């Protein structure tokens, strides 16, 4: 990754690392400490890196779009790793395109609503810890073109229904915040 892009991504993540969107001081401090280690992307550090997650939310009917993710086997919000050559906006839009089939959904950088840290325990994946940056994605989902290679199933559901099938703590935190 070239130095300019690396510095740009570092600056973007540093600028959005805000105590107000962290569950507690431990998460906030861990984000700052992880930033100082540099090597922010999966390409640079396969074990611990930053990810962009987005929660599709229909403001009209107050439903969220949840996916049964093939790799994790869990019901989760869509999202994924930030690649070495990307800004936060580019990573967010790439993940939206890969998973929901929508090109360039966001035209401008977005403000995240949550920062979380997710421990990963998967026998065939090198990932051990994700530093997750969460974005709200207001949409009715009419133009979704779901990639069936990514998910066993996908569903629009109320936040209450989502809380019944989602077990991942970070996703539950995101659902709690979006329900306010």
Keywords, separated by commas or semicolons:
Nucleoside Triphosphate Pyrophosphohydrolase, single chain, 180 residues, 5 helices, 31% helix, alpha+beta, globular
Strand content: 25-35%
Number of domains: 1
Please give the alpha-carbon distance between the first and last residues: 39 Å
Number of strands: 7
Residue-averaged pLDDT, rounded? 93
Write the element-wise H/E pattern from the N-terminal end onward.
Answer: HHEEEEHEEEHH
- How many DSSP H or I helices? 5
Anisotropy-based shape? globular
Structural class: alpha+beta
> Helix amount, in percent?
25-40%
Kindly describe this structure:
By secondary structure, the protein is of the alpha+beta class. It has a single domain, classed as Nucleoside Triphosphate Pyrophosphohydrolase, CATH 3.90.79.10. Helices cover 31% and strands 26% of the residues. It is built from 5 helices and 7 strands. Strands 1, 2, 3, 4, 5, 6 and 7 form a 7-stranded mixed beta sheet that branches. The chain starts with a helix and ends with a helix. The model has no long low-confidence stretch (mean pLDDT 93).
């Amino acid at each position: 990754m070239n130095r300019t892009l690396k510095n740009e991504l570092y600056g973007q993540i540093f600028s959005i690392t805000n105590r107000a969107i962290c569950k507690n001081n431990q998460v906030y401090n861990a984000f700052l400490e992880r930033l100082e280690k540099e090597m922010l992307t999966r390409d640079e550090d396969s074990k611990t890196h930053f990810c962009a997650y987005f929660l599709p939310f229909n403001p009209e009917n107050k439903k969220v779009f949840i996916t049964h993710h093939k790799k994790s086997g869990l019901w989760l919000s869509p999202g994924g790793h930030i690649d070495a050559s990307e800004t936060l906006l580019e990573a967010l839009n790439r993940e939206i395109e890969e998973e929901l089939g929508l090109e360039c959904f966001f035209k401008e950088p977005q403000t995240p609503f949550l920062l979380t840290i997710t421990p990963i325990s998967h026998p065939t994946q090198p990932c051990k810890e994700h530093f997750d940056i969460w974005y709200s994605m207001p949409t009715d989902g009419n133009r979704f073109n779901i990639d069936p290679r990514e998910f066993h199933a996908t569903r629009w559901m109320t936040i209450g229904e989502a809380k019944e099938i989602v077990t991942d703590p970070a996703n539950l935190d995101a659902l709690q915040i979006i329900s306010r």
